[in-house]
Specification:
Helix content is 21%, strand content 35%. It is an alpha+beta fold. The chain has a single domain (2-94, 117-181), classed as Hotdog Thioesterase (Thiol Ester Dehydrase, Chain A, Roll), CATH 3.10.129.10. The strands form two sheets. A six-stranded antiparallel beta sheet has the order 3-4-6-7-8-5, with helices on both faces. A two-stranded antiparallel ribbon has the order 1-2. The radius of gyration is 16 Å and the shape is globular.
């Protein structure tokens, strides 16, 4: 399967997987997906905006490149110097704030939760994070590959997702993200 990214670069799933050694979570994540159930449908920004309420400057997922609806998803975020947080974080050495990397992972997780059948309508919000780790800085020009996998749904109101963010096949951040359905 080939993925065309807005930068004009083309990758295959094998390239993304083989960019790390076989003991990394990338290999495990891809190996855990049943090839027959993986949707080859790419979710464009237009479809993402139909599913998520986020808008600029907080729409942090540019595209979904792989998914098992309601179970897992792989998205991308192209990091550019034009993003407003780089004006002050940090002048002369722009680094993407870790909280925005976590938010990008949460948005991919939100896309998973929004596609679970039989969940009540409403706004699922980011409710917490466990085991958050930041391993490398993310800078303008990087492309974040955001992987999320549903861990649990409880009482159709609470969800937990494992999230991982990669740049050039290297893990940059990870955590377990919790969601809650807001009362209307």
């Amino acid at each position: 399967m080939f993925y065309a990214f807005p930068t004009g670069m083309i990758f295959t799933r094998e390239t993304i997987t083989s960019a790390t050694d076989s003991s990394t979570p990338v290999e495990t994540f891809n190996a855990s997906l049943d090839a027959a159930s993986v949707s080859s449908e790419i979710l464009t920004i237009e479809t993402i905006q139909e599913l998520l309420p986020h808008r600029y400057p907080f729409a942090l997922v540019d595209r979904i490149i792989e998914q098992v609806p309601g179970k897992s998803a792989v998205g991308i975020k192209n990091v550019t110097i034009n993003e407003p947080h780089f004006q002050g974080h940090f002048p002369g050495r722009p680094i993407m704030p870790g909280v925005l990397i976590i938010e990008a992972m949460a948005q991919v997780g939100g896309l998973i939760v929004k596609q679970i059948p039989d969940l009540p309508e409403g706004l699922f919000v980011f409710a917490g994070i466990d085991k958050a780790r930041f391993r490398r800085p993310v800078v303008p020009g990087d492309q974040l590959v955001l992987k999320a996998e549903l861990l649990s749904i409880k009482r159709k109101r609470f969800g937990k997702v494992n999230g991982e963010a990669y740049v050039d096949g290297k893990l940059v951040a990870s955590g377990e993200l919790m969601f809650s359905l807001m009362d209307q």
